[in-house]
Design a protein that fits this description.
The protein has helices at 3-22, 27-34, 38-45, 53-62, 69-80, 86-90, 94-107, 126-140, 146-156, 183-196, 243-257, 263-275, and strands spanning 83-85, 110-115, 166-172, 202-207, 221-224, 228-232, 236-240. A seven-stranded mixed beta sheet has the order 1-7-6-5-2-3-4, with helices on both faces. The protein folds into two domains: 3-81, lambda repressor-like DNA-binding domains (434 Repressor (Amino-terminal Domain), Orthogonal Bundle); 85-275, Endonuclease Chain A (Endonuclease, Chain A), CATH 3.30.870. Helix 1 (3-22) packs antiparallel against helix 5, helix 2 packs across helix 4 (53-62) and helix 10 packs antiparallel against helix 12 (263-275). Strand 6 (228-232) and strand 7 (236-240) form a beta hairpin. By secondary structure, the protein is an alpha/beta fold. It has twelve helices and seven strands.
Amino acid sequence: MSTDFQQARVALGARLRELRIEAGLTVRGLAAECGWVPSKVSKLENGKQTASIADLEALASGVGRPETAAELKGRLAGLESTYRSWRRQLAGGHRAVQDALGAQHERTTLLRGISASVIPGIFQTPEYARAVLSSYADLHGAVRDVEGGVASRMRRQEGLYARDKQYKVLLWESALHVRICSPMVLADQLDRLMSVNGLSTVDLGIVPLGAAVSLAAGDDFWIHDDRLVIAESWHAEMWLDSPEDVALYRKVWDALAVGAVTGRDAHRIIARARAALSPA
């Protein structure tokens, strides 16, 4: 969890505690008003749990000040603009998530990305994308609209053929072998990866398994024109736009790029992974 997000969550909790005290309620008293267990009030007030919109509405009503719900929702929206829970995002469907990423993509001329575990979405075939999105849907219990997400992701790939865009992507060699899909789908995906490796808009670097690197693989992320970083973890997506955060991720990207191979050397590594798959 990012430090900025946790600080914002603690600040929201402090405001909730303030409202409870102003209403003359104890923790147990507010819990009774809201129909919660007392531990939930404590977790919210101490920044140990992220409030939902329904929680904030119930709390505002519980302290007798329903008009404060709008203020509390605004604080939550500001918090989630940086730290976006997958569970909450996927509640609206995969297409909404992919469309939001697509909007940022359209604004961006130079994208730098790192992926350690799967082929990046910008290079995915529809079948591979379907397997990846379905796995995340299963993980988070949000199975709706996978096809909409696939369609949105495919539209974003039009940027690969736009003269005003450039993609500098680092891919860990291990991602070429992850069986998140059938061998046939993976084979087609590796063929696709070899074809995009020749595009003028793409600089693809493969970090070999035996490469000497100063940093280990971490979260996948994309840097948009050195103005925004979108980083992924298992439970959330972080949108970071402070100069300090962007500079840190750029430093990580530059450090890992030193260990990557490109051009024909990258092509050979992909081809070797493709040859290791049994014929469909």
